[in-house]
Amino acid sequence: MQPRSLREALALLDPEDPDVRPFAGGTAMMLMMKAGVLRPRRLVSLQSIGAGCAAISTAGEGELRIGALATLSALELSPLVRRAAPAICEAMPRLSNVRVRNVATVGGALAHADPHMDLPPLLCALEARALIASPRGERELPVEALITGYMETALRRDELIAEIRVPVRPQRTAAYLKCTTRSADDWPALGVAVSLERSGGAVHSCSVVIAAATDRPTRARQAEAELRGRDPDDPSVVARAAEAAAAELTLHGDPQLSLDYKRQLVRVYAGRAIRAALRAAPG
After folding, report:
1. pLDDT tens per residue, the chain (283 residues)?
2. Which CATH code of 3.30.310.50, 3.30.465.10, 3.40.225.10, 3.40.50.300 fits the domain covering 6-47+54-167?
3. 81, 56 in Cβ contact below 8 A?
4. What is the Cα–Cα distance from 133 to 159, expressed in whole angstroms?
C-alpha cells in the first residue's frame, strides 16, 4: 500500500496486527524478508508521503530538524547538517556504501534498532530527540530512550518516527569511531560516539555512547563522570574514562570476538573517540 500523506500512512497501520509493517528505504527489511526472518502480511510504503517528511531544516539557531525520510546521503551532503552537527557528515562516508546511503533513511535506521548501526549511537551522544506521530497525536522521546533493546524500540505498532531534532550547541564538539573486522564501511564490531563541551579548560558536559558490543546504544556514565569537571588535556583523565567505559558496560561476545577482546576494544576506542572529539571543530 502506498499512502500519500503521513496521516494516511498512520491510518493504514494496525495497532493489533504485528504483520502490518511500514517501510521507507527497505534496505534492512528486504534482507530480513529474503532470509525468512520477517514475513509481513501487508507492507505500508512511506516513500510517497510528502517531501516535508524528508526535509532538513533549522529552527532558529537552536535546533537541527531532520525529516525521518531524509536519506543518509542527504545527511552527508547537507550544508545545514555540516554546520550544526559536523560529526554526522564525517561519519556518513564510512556508513555502508553509497548505494545503501542513497536509499536508507534516518527514521528507518532508528526504527530498525540494530545495535550494529552507526547513526543511532551518534544521535544519542548528540542528545537528539525523535518526534513520533500516531493517530492520537505526537510525542517526543530522546533517541536514547527510543531504542529499548536488541532490535526493539518504544514505538507502538501504529506509530511512526516523523522527525529527528538535534540541539545545536556552538561550543560542542563530537566524534564517532568504529572498529570493523573487514572493510572500513562494514558493520562495526564496536562503535563509540562522544560529544562534549568545555568551560575554562575543563569538561562541562559530555556523552559517551557505546554500540555494537552492547545490545543497544548505551551511555557509559562512569566514563562521563571521569571526564566531567576535569581537564581532558591531562592524558590520565582520558585513560581513566576509557578504563571506566570498559569496566562498567555489559558487553556481548560473538563467534569472532571474545568478551575480553571486546572489552579491550572499548578501552582503546573510547580513548581514541574522546581525543577525536577534543580535536574536532565545534558545531
Report:
1. 788 899 999 999 988 888 888 888 777 777 777 777 778 788 888 888 877 899 999 987 799 999 999 999 999 999 999 999 999 999 999 888 888 899 899 999 999 999 889 999 999 999 999 999 999 999 999 999 999 999 899 999 999 999 999 999 999 999 999 998 777 667 789 999 999 999 999 999 999 999 999 999 999 999 999 999 999 999 999 999 999 999 999 998 777 788 899 999 999 999 999 999 999 977 6
2. 3.30.465.10
3. yes
4. 6
Q: Contact, 74 vs 101, CB < 8 A? A: no
Burial of 205 (0-12, 13-18, 19+ CB in 10 A): middle
Task: Assign domain 173-279 to a CATH class.
Answer: alpha beta
pTM summary value: 0.92
